[in-house]
Amino acid sequence: MNILTLMETFSAVVETGSFTAAADKLGLSKSFVSKQVSILELDLGTCLLYRTTRKLSLSDEGGQFYDHCKIIMAEAENARAEVMDSQGAPRGKIRITMPQSLIISGFGQLLIEFQLQHPEIELEVTASGRVEDLVKEGIDIALRVGQLEDSSLISRRLADCTFQVVASSQYIKKWGIPSQPADLMQHNCLIYGDSKINKGWLFRSPSGETITVKAKGSLTSNDGILIVDGMLNGLGIGFGPSFLFQQHVKEGRLQLLLSDYYQPTTAISALYPLNRNLSRRIRLLIDYLSERLSI
User: Per CATH, which fold does 89-157+267-293 belong to?
Assistant: First the structure.
C-alpha cells in the first residue's frame, strides 16, 4: 500500500485520538484504519501506537514518525494548493503563528481584511510568543518582534517599533513619574509574561550604556489585553512594543515615560523556512501586510 496513504491514516489517528474518529474523518471503516496502521508498523518494524481499551498513546518511535508525517503532509498540501493557485483565485491554507500582542494591536484586523479579500484562503492562526521550529510544526509564517538568530529562517521586515514605558495619568498622579530606569523598582510594574521581556526590561542610557531592570509588580500575565487594561485603570506601569500602546497614547489614555532611555528601533518581521518555496497565497499575504504596515 502507498506509504503516503498509510502516513495520512496514521496522522489522522494521532490527531483525532482514536481509530473510530479517524475512520469518520477519512470516510473509512474502523477495521480498515486499524489494519492500515498495523501494516505501517509491520513495514517500519516498530510499534507506533500503544493501544488500551481507554486510549491510544504514541511510542517514542511513533512520536518521531508523526513529526515527519506532519512535515510531509503539509508539503503535499502546499504542492496541491500551489498548483490550484495557478489555475485561478488563490486558495489553500496558511498556518501563521504570532504573539498575542500583535493580534490585539491591529494585526488581527489586517488578517481578517485579507481573508475578506481572498475568501478561498484559509487562515490558521496560533497566538504564541515562543519560537517554534517552523518546519517541524508545519508553520508557513511566523510574525515576530525583534531579530531572531536562526540561519534556517528568512526574515522580511514589515514595520518598525520601539519598546516603550507607559502609564495612565491616574497612576502618575498617585505615584509620580520615574526619572530613570532604576526608579521602576519602586513602582508597581505590570509584566507581560508571554515574552522575553518579562526576564528584564532593557534600556539604553543617553551615553549608550545598556541597562536591565528586573521589574516587579502585582500582575503578571501572558494575556496582553489584561496587562493593557491594568495600565488603563491605573494599576501600574507597563513596558512593551509601541504598536501595543500607540492608539492609547495617541488618544491620551496612556503617557510615555523614560523616553530618553529607549532602545534603538527594532523590526516586526515575517519569518519563513529557508528551504520552503513560497506559494502564491503566502507571498500574497506577506506583500499585503508589508503594504498595509508601510502606510
Answer: D-Maltodextrin-Binding Protein; domain 2 (3.40.190)
